[in-house]
Specification:
Layout (H helix, E strand, L loop, with lengths): L4 E6 H11 L13 H17 L3 E5 L7 H4 L12 H17 L3 E2 L6 H14 L3 E6 L12 E6 L6 E4 L1 H8 L5 H9 L14 H11 L2 H6 L6 H9 L1 H11 L22 H11 L10 E2 L3 E2 L5 E2 L2 E2 L5 H7 L3 E4 L3 H11 L4 E8 L9 E7 L4 E6 L14 H13 L4 E4 L2 H10 L8 E3 H8 L7 H9 L7 H4 L13 H28 L3 H21 L1 E3 L1 H26 L8 H11 L19 H6 L5 H20 L2 H4 L6 E2 L2 E3 L9 E3 L11 H7 L2 E2 L4 E8 L2 H10 L2 H8 L4 H10 L8 H15 L4 H8 L3 H14 L1 H17 L1 E3 L5 E3 L11 H37 L5 E6 L2 E7 L3 H13 L10 E6 L6 E2 L1
Helix pairs in contact: 1-2, 1-4, 2-4, 4-12, 7-8, 7-11, 13-20, 14-15, 16-21, 17-20, 18-20, 21-35, 22-25, 28-34, 28-35, 30-31, 30-33, 31-32, 32-33, 33-34, 34-35, 35-36
Length: 926
């Protein structure tokens, strides 16, 4: 007799459940589909963690089973396995083999039959058996030794079925489930069952009579309905029972020794597959497996443990030789070494994510791969009771190195570290190499975190910060982590960034993107850092006044909404609002989807479609807009004012978009709504310092100018050269009227056409936007292309280029990749159409983003060269906002025009509109 636990896994069933449960868009870095593979791996690890088995076997289907010979229609309705699924089955087998688990499959038999046979053999030998499957056919196998583990409503959830669980769910014994399926059939397997007998009736009949045979033996006792059904369906009933019965006598033999956990485990191969598939999130769950041994009492001991707490530091330490620097002599020696380096990687450890408020805990540095030094400032006492280095000492020795323009500074998300270091008297100057930005240029859709990049590019598993400081309510800060633990963690950050830079630079050069990186993105980090450090002043009194006003308006709207509804309710409750709109008021709900709660959706797009049907809709939309404005900006901004500077310091993310545009967070100053009066009034809160004015410079129709340059359309180019209103010019073309006959409404329609075409909009999309027939929208587009035919040529060419090369480029060679358009792509038609639209837009929008960045670099340099006090504060879309001393307005304006209008030479001139005022709202043309 054997002992221990055997886990039997239905490989096909789990893979299919995962394939249909997880997003089809999941893919590896190579682009291969991974949703089924990921789900299978996720469930496998869950089972290993929860069950800690001694033995594991995986079964797979192999061709049609013997049941097809009995009933040709058995599973005949099932679609052929999708190619995306077939690819993943091979990957799943690779993973199973890497774990060392035997695979059992047999011609003419389904995986269920192999599971049943092996489970019964194992139970007879005294083992506990857990069957892991994606469906519940295996519940008929449950007994005192066999349980079934299946996925729940969410694939990652598990449900365990022991004897009592089956009895509770069905009110039947496991073996009776065979007869249950014989009666009710199974659509998924095309098992016919008995027509007219459903699940509820079948369970009731089996509870009373026990088995299918006994049921037929007592036909005379049944109601006429069931008697007629069972007599007519006798043949189908017994056929269905045969089809539903798992064959527990398949010609396979249980080989426990080959199934022993850890016996054939190849951790290196598993890790290589994890890296290849992009499953970094699963890596921490990969167990340390070894063969089972026996303890002194003869019990099986499985060496199956996750890494212990003490291994967190050792894992980072294993990446290189890392040392703390805890006295001035060590610091002096280190800085003498670093002063001779051509490149130094730097990383900071802080007490928080806000670079303007965080305390500096320590600094890690390196000038070579697999080496690193850590300078602690805030940390528990080091060995011997010695305190960490003081800031003044670090400044004295390290500041000259960080300020040395001849030494390249490397790091990952360097702008954060630069801000922190500058706040603590350690400004960084000179050439930069930010590995996060470099990776973003090379692969805009990649996971950009340092630990993700270490895993993807170097195959190294780095320690997560939560392993050091915890998470949730128990989370601490880095200044509470012991020096022995923080040194390897912090030094690894600098070391890996140093190594990644060596790897990324040749790739940038090969793709001809090194100039974009070196001459634009890296210098821009210095500019963005200064903008963030400076921040912008906020008028708190105005915000308080606006908040009170909005509160009153919201209260009035709420009262009016309740009056229109005929009762009070919580307007912010989507369920209560749904009930009011679609039940109480009876608004049409046809075509509106229901939410998980069973109520009709009340999202903004739904309410927009209901406009005009009841006055309550306009009030609700107005209420939502005001409430969002109040909570997101008016009430939130005061808490974001830095107590030391009295200003708001937004954070600009240079890698926040695939097009190259800079994004803004904490707060997002680029999303303040300006199309409504209330949104514009929020801008009134952003004010200039005393003695200064805010100066706004906004590119005029920069994307359309880029379109003219890229398409080389003579009509478009000449219109810009004549300084025509391009929207009016387009209106004249699509309405076939003279330029001086264009009305405001015509121009508005033409503007939608201009920008719609830039974004690859179809006639259908334009028609929906303008509320006109599709035929009219198509006529507008046709007339546009008649007037500007080279624009159409550009669109066709760029789409063909995207399909052929897999990417498109901006004027400065920024790329966006479109694997959806490549041959063999598994993308749907909708995904391909969306990719084609983005392929049209990317060179235009991306080039516009490059131009504003070039302009910011030129402006930053020219303001300093001419000793002007104006400084950039904000960058929003195509606009730059400066704070300018009142006495320097004229000279600053000249510099701004020169810097921005000559940032790049195009076939059409760039043009800016400038405004000046005491705040961001009350501005007038300069």
């Amino acid at each position: 007799m054997a002992s221990g636990k055997l886990v039997l896994i239905d490989g096909h069933s789990l893979a299919y459940r995962a394939f249909h449960a997880l997003p089809q868009e999941m893919s590896a870095p190579s682009g291969e589909p991974t949703n089924a593979t990921f789900g299978f791996m996720q469930m496998l690890l869950t089972v290993l963690e929860q069950e800690r088995p001694d033995y594991v076997i995986v079964t797979f289907d192999k061709g049609p089973s013997f049941r097809v010979a009995k009933y040709e229609a058995y599973k005949a309705h099932r679609e052929k396995m999708p190619e995306e699924m077939r690819q993943q089955m091979e990957r799943i087998r690779e993973l199973v083999e890497a774990f060392g688990f035997p695979i059992v499959e047999l011609d003419d038999y389904e995986a269920d039959d192999l599971l049943g046979t092996l489970a019964k053999q194992a139970a007879e030998q005294g083992l506990d058996v857990v069957i892991v499957t994606g469906d519940r056919d295996a519940l008929q196998l449950v007994d005192e030794h066999i349980t079934v583990l299946t996925s729940g409503r969410r694939f990652s959830d598990t449900i365990r079925y022991a004897l009592d669980d089956v009895r509770e769910k069905y009110g039947l014994e496991p073996k009776q489930l065979i007869d249950l399926k014989a009666l009710m059939g199974d659509r998924s397997d095309n098992i016919p069952g008995v027509r007219g007998v459903g699940e509820k009736g079948a369970i009731a009949l089996l509870k009373q009579y026990g088995t299918l045979d006994e049921l037929y033996a007592h036909l005379a006792d049944l109601s006429p309905r069931y008697r007629r059904a069972l007599i007519a369906g006798r043949e189908d009933a017994y056929l269905s029972r045969d089809l539903a019965t798992i064959d527990c006598h398949a010609p396979v033999e249980l080989d426990l020794e080959s199934a022993r956990v850890g016996k054939g485990f190849d951790r290196d191969r598993v890790m290589a597959l994890m890296r290849e598939l992009g499953f970094r999130s699963l890596v921490p769950r990969i167990p340390v497996l070894g063969e089972a041994s026996e303890d002194r009492e003869g019990h099986q001991l499985l060496l199956f443990e996750q890494e212990e707490e003490s291994s967190v530091a050792s894992r980072s330490r294993a990446l290189g030789k890392y040392e703390p620097v805890v006295d001035e002599a060590q610091l002096r020696d280190l800085c003498a070494r670093l002063s001779k380096a051509t490149a130094v990687a730097v990383d900071t450890e802080t007490t928080g994510l806000d670079a303007m408020r965080a305390e500096l805990v320590g600094i890690s540095l390196t000038d070579a791969p697999q080496m690193g030094w850590y300078l602690p400032l805030l940390a528990p006492a080091v060995e011997g009771g010695q305190r960490p280095l003081d800031l003044e000492t670090i400044q004295r020795h390290l500041a000259p190195i960080l300020a040395n323009g001849e030494i390249e500074k490397r790091g990952h998300n360097l702008k954060y570290d630069m801000k922190v270091l500058e706040r603590f008297g350690l400004p960084v100057s000179g050439r930069l190499f930010d590995t996060m930005v470099a990776e973003w240029i090379l692969n805009p859709d990649s996971a950009l975190g340092l630990k993700s990049q270490a895993w993807i590019r170097l195959g190294l598993q780095m320690t997560e910060i939560t392993d050091l400081i915890g998470k949730g309510q128990t989370q601490t800060t880095m200044d509470h982590v012991t020096l022995d633990t923080v040194v390897p963690y912090a030094c690894a950050d600098a070391d890996i960034a140093f190594r990644l830079a060596d790897m990324l630079e040749p790739e940038l050069r090969e793709r001809e993107q090194l100039t974009l990186f070196r001459d634009l993105e890296m210098p821009l980090l210095h500019v963005l850092k200064e903008m963030e450090l400076r921040g912008i002043k906020v008028d708190l009194n105005w915000l308080r006044q606006l908040s009170e006003e909005l509160s009153q308006r919201l209260a009035a709207l709420e009262a009016r909404i309740h009056q229109r509804a005929g009762r009070t309710f919580n307007i912010n409750s989507t369920q209560q609002l749904s009930q009011v709109l679609f039940e109480d008021l009876g608004l049409p709900a046809r075509g509106i989807r229901k939410t998980k709660s069973g109520h009709y959706s009340t999202r903004a797009s739904v309410l927009e479609n209901l406009r005009g049907l009841h006055p309550i809709i306009d009030d609700i939309l107005a209420y939502r807009e005001l409430a969002k404005l109040k909570s997101t900006y008016v009430d939130a901004l005061p808490s974001l004012v830095n107590p030391e500077t009295g200003r708001v310091h937004t954070s600009y993310n240079p890698t926040g978009t695939v097009t190259g545009r800079i994004s803004s967070t904490n707060p997002n100053l680029q999303n303040i709504p300006i199309r409504t009066e209330e949104g514009r009034r929020v801008r009134r809160a952003f004010v200039a310092e005393d003695g200064c004015l805010l100066f706004s410079a906004d590119y005029s129709q920069v994307e359309l100018r880029v379109m003219a340059h890229i398409s080389k359309d003579p009509g478009l180019i000449e219109a810009f050269k004549r300084d025509e209103d391009i929207h009016a010019t387009t209106a004249a073309a699509i309405y076939q009227v003279p330029l001086d006959a264009v009305t405001y409404e015509m121009r508005s329609t033409a503007k939608a056409v201009n920008f719609g075409l830039i974004y690859g909009q179809s006639a259908f999309g334009l028609a929906r936007q303008l509320g006109i027939p599709v035929e009219q929208a198509q006529a507008f587009i046709d007339r546009y292309f008649e007037r500007f035919p080279r624009v159409r040529d550009y669109m066709q060419c760029i789409q063909a280029e995207a399909a052929e090369r897999g990417y498109v480029e901006t004027l400065l060679r920024r790329r966006r990749y479109f694997p959806e358009l490549q041959e063999g792509s598994r993308a749907s038609s909708n995904q391909r159409q969306a990719a084609l639209r983005m392929a049209i837009n990317m060179p235009i929008q991306g080039s516009a983003a490059d131009i504003i960045k070039l302009a910011m670099l030129r402006l930053h340099r020219m303001l300093r060269e001419q000793n002007l006090g104006g400084r950039m504060l904000l960058q929003v879309h195509d606009e730059v906002v400066l704070e300018v001393p009142e006495g320097e307005l004229q000279e600053t304006s000249r510099v701004v025009h020169e810097a921005m209008e000559h940032a790049i030479e195009l076939d059409v001139a760039l043009k800016i509109d400038v405004e000046v005022g005491p705040n961001w709202l009350d501005m007038h043309p300069e």
